[in-house]
Amino acid sequence: MAIKPSQWIFLDGEWLAWNDAQVHVTSHALHYGSSAFEGIRAYETPEGPAIFRLEDHNQRLLDTCKMLYMEMDEYPVERLNELCIEAVSRNQLKSCYLRPLVFRGAGGMGLYPLDKPVSFTLFAIEWGRYLGQDAIEQGIDAMVSSWRRFNASTSMPLAKIGGQYVTNQTVSVEARAAGFGEGIMLDDRGNVCEGAGENLFLVKDSTLLTPPMAQSILGGITRRSVWQLAQDRGIPCKETTISRDMLYLADEIFMTGTAAEVSPVRSVDRIPVGNGGRGPITEQLQTAFFDTVEGRTEDIHSWRTVVPSHD
Q1: What are the structural domains, with CATH classification, of the chain?
Q2: Choosing from 94, 160, 204, 238, which is the catalytic residue?
């Protein structure tokens, strides 16, 4: 998906024109994947652009930095929030995707990272539906990938570390090459984990099921939001181990993520999910989610940060 350039990018303390935001080819992150990142969406609402769960995303970024020993003293969560708001406002975007990125820059070769400088950058761009416009209503066809999600003794599943996403790339490539919209990863024990870039929910007997945090999943912000929206509506929710064959017997399946939002899965390994389309609970939670992020309902959980117009 091609990027439509915006006007301004923040890099190491200053706002630069899009084409002027550059890093050196010897940057540590380019060679060894030493970066932490977030994906954040802002939606057009009647009050103006509103960033969804801004502080939660930036706190998760700082949590990832902590696990990578990357000092962010100049950028506490309040400062990160301010910069994200300015990125939307300065670029005059009504809705957009924000990418804050912390990375080890140029300063020598070798694996050891702590003597390499830490850089911070942030950009905001227009970006549509990650899995395609039709995926929201019609759903996607998914496959169980041959690639497994790493466990917490191998790396840090709760962190959004750039280098860890090579596995996610291979899952996505494998799925697309086989004619599917997305791949689903199992964990090292063969239980359902998550999609290539999304958390996963099943509906069985009117109960919402999802793998627990300790099962090598990323702690998704959208995952938490959908869980809360389900509880608000009295839908039973349960974190539980999900075996592969439960995918084939589920009444409904959907994926969640900042990029994917709430996307139904209509088949897994060419076996229809339920009736082969978007199920009623999925549709109910989709509606609740988009009504919330797009400002059609009261913000009872204080999830929206409205962006003032840029002077």
Answers
A1: 8-125 (3.30.470.10), 135-293 (3.20.10.10)
A2: 160
pLDDT tens for each residue of 143-166:
999 999 999 999 999 999 999 999
pLDDT digits (tens, 9 = 90+) for 205-232: 999 999 999 999 999 999 999 999 999 9
d(CA 168, CA 27): 22
Question: Is 4 known to be catalytic?
Answer: no
Q: Residue 222: name the closest of 233, 210, 234 by CA.
A: 210
The per-residue DSSP string of 118-175 comes to EEEEEEEEB---TT-TTHHHH-EEEEEEEEEPP-TTTS-TTS-BGGGHHHHHHHHHHH
